[in-house]
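Reviewer comment 2.1 asked that we show a complete input and output for one of the modelled complexes. We chose the adenosine-5'-diphosphate case, as it is the one discussed in the main text.
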Amino acid sequence: MATSKGPVIVVTGTPGTGKSTLAQMLASESPIVLRHINVGELVKEKKLYEEYDDDWQSYTVDEDKLLDELELIVADGGVILDWHTCDIFPERWPDLVVVLRCDHTIVWERLEKRGYPLKKIQENNEAEIMQVVLEDARSSYPAEIVVELQSQTTEDLESNVTRIIGWIEAWKNDHPA
Ligand SMILES: Nc1ncnc2c1ncn2[C@@H]1O[C@H](COP(=O)(O)OP(=O)(O)O)[C@@H](O)[C@H]1O
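Response of the prediction step:
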């Protein structure tokens, strides 16, 4: 749901695949102002959850509240939504959906460093192997806006930034202010 201010880009993928790293770089290098929304942080900050699950060390998100909050942000355009799931976002929202992929052993190491409990690491590791986020993205949005990108190395990161910045440039040319 782009506005004259800019497109709506979803950056999604299993936790640890590199969404926030990529989204921050995109926000700082984009030729148009893009607001980076780390949805997990927003949920905590605005208390858009039902409860905190101690076992899983994660929040049970109140999806209605979250969607109401995001609707206002998305309506403004020029936003990067960074979250480990994407299928709750309405189909009309994104102009581009980037799904980051990573070797599951690397995801495991990254989540271990983050101090996640073992069962949470195992669950995410399995989700990456089963490409759950990619399948969800493909079943929720038109094929032509869903892009799968590898995010294992610094070279991957640089080439992903270059590629998406190229897409933003093209979007800008197609939507003169
Ligand atoms: N393409 C990459 N190559 C190497 N390390 C990366 C890459 N992307 C992310 N990382 C590292 O992996 C860790 C997790 O990245 P982060 O962006 O927090 O993932 P996410 O937001 O998907 O949970 C961080 O330590 C980050 O520096």
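The CA atoms of residues 44 and 59 lie 8 Å apart. We note this here for comparison with the apo prediction described in Section 3.2.
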